[in-house]
Amino acid sequence: MLAAGRGDGEAFAALYDRWSGPLLRFFWHLCYDRDGAEDLMQETFLRIWRAAPRYEVRARFSTYLFQVGKNLWLNERAKVLRRPLRISLDAPRDCGPEGEGTSLAERLPGPGAGPADEASRCEQGRRLRAAVDGLSEKLREVFVLAGFEEMPYQQVGEVLGIPEGTVKSRMWAAVRRLRAKLEEPS
Description:
Elements: H1 2-5, H2 9-31, H3 34-51, H4 61-82, H5 104-107, H6 115-133, H7 137-148, H8 153-160, H9 164-183
Helix pairs in contact: 2-3, 2-7, 3-4, 4-8, 6-9, 7-8, 7-9, 8-9
């Protein structure tokens, strides 16, 4: 990042190559919208590039990156909550942050998978997304960073600006609530 701050485009490209995937997954698990997650990821990197000349090493780069991303998410989420919801019926539905399951060929069962297996897998994914969406914002942020992004609790605390003990208690509460929700009959 220090090299990028001096105008080294290759250094910034290396940062992008290393961190765009994890950041995209982070946003996807927050909004379950591939296009929205990509937009947020691109805007985060744009902000990082613009701030590169003023960057000071205070923590890991990943902590800084996810803090910028989290703040962008909170700002964009506040804007969305003030607007009426509009969903395009023509928009493709994604099954993952990399867009898995979007083509017809991927949705057709393979030689070992039958329609019942595919339906069961999609239903489990929907139930998990609904359960994660049902968490409070504080629990969901911790669960996405620690559970999906596999960040250590200490780093999650740095990203969210909370003590490590609070991260642990929120993660415990999130897992407990998710377990209870997923054990309910569907």
